[in-house]
Amino acid sequence: MLQPTTGVTPPWRFGAIMTDEITSRRNIPVRVRVILVLFLLYLFLVGVKALESGIKSFGADFTDSLFAGVSNPIAGLFVGTLATVLVQSSSVTTATIVGLVGAGTLSVPLAVPMIMGANIGTTVTNTLASLGYLRRSSEFRRAFAGATMHDFFNILAVAVLLPLELATKFLSKSAEALAGLLGRSTNLDFESPNSPIKAAVSAPVKLLEKLFEGLGAGDTLLGILLLVAGLALIFLALAYITRNMKLVVAGRIERSMNVVLAKGGGVAAMAIGLIMTVAVQSSSITTSVLVPMIAAGVLTLANAYPITLGANVGTTVTALLASLATERPEGLVIALVHTLFNISGILVFYPIPQLRRIPVYLAEKLARVAEVRKSLVIVYVVGAFVLVPLLGILLLQ
After folding, report:
1. How many Å apart are CA 158 and CA 134, to the nearest integer?
2. Contact, 311 vs 90, CB < 8 A?
């Protein structure tokens, strides 16, 4: 960690925020952890493939009826939000959506609002993290503002970009064009059975299918077992990737963050947020780590803001990885939609100072009210992240 040259800890210093787990559990060599992460990434891809195969085992009639009630794009937005709140991970939600699109079960137009909803749902984690300061009013005000700043940015991005997407399809068309370019430049052939990545990922799934069939599982039971196995692998792989990468890169990110925050943040801080999120495979960790820094007053909302935006882009890597295990190019298309959506949100709001200030201003206003009326916090969290999405799904289906 950086050592202050004056004998006084700089106010922007990140080191005090790191958890005991990061500083104490370093007995496993870094090389071993990196190898373990690579293996976990492989298991993650196997999980996506198992999920895709499980969906196919149910047959077309089942999958058609499964999503027949989510034909409304706003309902799809609420489904993505609620699903992410329930599993507490946008990475799991987006990987699942990519698997469904890659299996041909879910169309790209319907999946786009679900991806946007996952962006909103993931912000609940850092909002909950801010509740730890409820008994200390001034710290709570700052922490709650820092957390809800992320909420407001994602909600505003959806409010602007979803209507544009529904009217013009600019995100999905751009993603299709980019997927075509990537396919040609990398010889990525989704239909080819000879792809080494797909062959390596498919092999254990085929073994699972044979095992379950040998135990007498019919199509429906086989689909259920593959679905459970796939989701379990996705959950476990992402959880342990996050844990190991947090231990591997914590010190390096801390040093980089110290330097960037000392200079005031900006685009460099956005890059730190992106890199940190890609490294630990969790935007929730990145944004939740900022909350205690903001609460303590060692980091301003203005400096934390670009880190949050970088985390938004970094979290899309999970969907891009998941698309490697799909058999259809649509899987890559929806993963690229996720990336383009988050980049577009930054391009709309960040370059213009007046627009950049809106999420911060709204967060500060809400935090001042919440500081006085703390019961409003529960109403906000439950209402915005559970009741509104749930009612929206029920009313719009």
Report:
1. 29
2. no
Q: pLDDT tens digits, residue range 31-67?
A: 787 788 778 878 877 877 787 677 667 665 554 444 5
Q: Are 332 and 323 in contact (CB under 8 A)?
A: yes
How many domains are contained in the chain?
A: 1
How many CA atoms are closer than 13 Å to the CA of 367, on its beta-carbon side?
A: 31
Residue 281 token pair? 């495979």
Give domain status of residue 179, yes or no.
yes
- For the chain, the average pLDDT equals 78
Closest C-alpha among 34, 14, 68 to residue 241 = 34
Transcribe 153-183 into DSSP letters: HHHHHHHHHHHHHHHH-HHHHHHHHHHHHHH
Q: Is residue 124 within 8 Å of residue 155, measured between CB atoms?
A: no
Q: Is the predicted pLDDT of residue 340 greater than 80, yes or no?
A: yes
Whether residue 310 is contained in a domain is answered as yes
270 falls within a domain: yes
Q: Which residue has the tokens 């929206």?
A: 392
Q: 1 lies in a domain?
A: no
